[in-house]
Amino acid sequence: MMIPRENIHRILVIKFGGLGDVFLSTIIIESLKNQFPSAKLDYLIKKEGREAIIRDERVSSVFVFDREEMNSLSLIRLIRRQRYDVVIDLFGNPRSAIITFLSGAKYKVGLDYGWRKHLYSIVGEAQREILHGARVNLGALKAMGVQIVRPELRYPLGKDDIAHAESVWKTNQLEGKFVIGILPAGSWPAKRCEPPKFAEISMGLAQQYHAKILVVWGPTDESDARAIVQQCGEAAVLAPPASLSRNLALLARCTAIVSNDSGPMHLASAFSTPILCLYGPTYPEGPHGTIHEWVRKEGLDCLECNYLHCPIQHPCMRELPIGAVMEKFAHMLEKNGIRAD
Q1: For position 153, what pLDDT does the model report?
Q2: CATH topology of domain 159-335
Q3: From 3.40.50.10320, 2.40.160.60, 3.40.50.150, 3.40.50.2000, which CATH number describes the 10-144 domain?
């Protein structure tokens, strides 16, 4: 169904979920702004995803739903007061679908997730089994008749962020060196590669490429980050405590990155630095973009278990073959034309 451009003044995108979920949804923004250039574009998210969207100047307002501060009925009333012409539900759970249905918008758009699809006036194909999570979101736009333009992810770094990265490089004498960023973040314990394995990977790469290891961490990753650096010795540098945007500036400056499956990994995929992602309990769709790669220990019956906590000693990470990691890392460098001097 083609939505006419005229009389579309206000659009709301609903994307609950975590940091990575919200960020991957931003792939639709450029196409929406191109199709409806005069429309005001807002986002409705949960607080976990705030940092993924709050800096995007293409978005007019960001509404943060916190169940401790607002119930669903109050949220629906808030949405109805905005008088949206189009509401696009990219999350597709019962709550987001009902909010969309009761939003008062003329065009209620969503993806074909179970019974929720009956609450929308326009339904797109999710094709989750064959598409990257970022591109699943484009199914809603195609159903609206929106032309897909520049389907890219972007994260704007500020001058302070870039200055922070420059300072870290100068302080640690990283200029001109082959720097491998290590990102031990992971929202689930089962997604996290244990420090001994991450240190083994880091040391192998440092020796192979005469590289310096830069371990970048957030508030929940500090103990893992310090353990990795301690086990790597002089080959590794612990990044100073910093905001998410400053950490992303560090990662953007690296030669390459090795990361767990995490929200910060997805944000870092917006830059031109290739990422090798370590997978185990989740489906290995990889960072978005052809410059990246992923690796996992094949042959395990428990792969893609989606358990938050592993009940069997975490073999997908603990037994991840260093040879497989080195091979995938080398392939990633080769296809990006990166050579170690």
Answers
A1: 96
A2: Rossmann fold (3.40.50)
A3: 3.40.50.2000
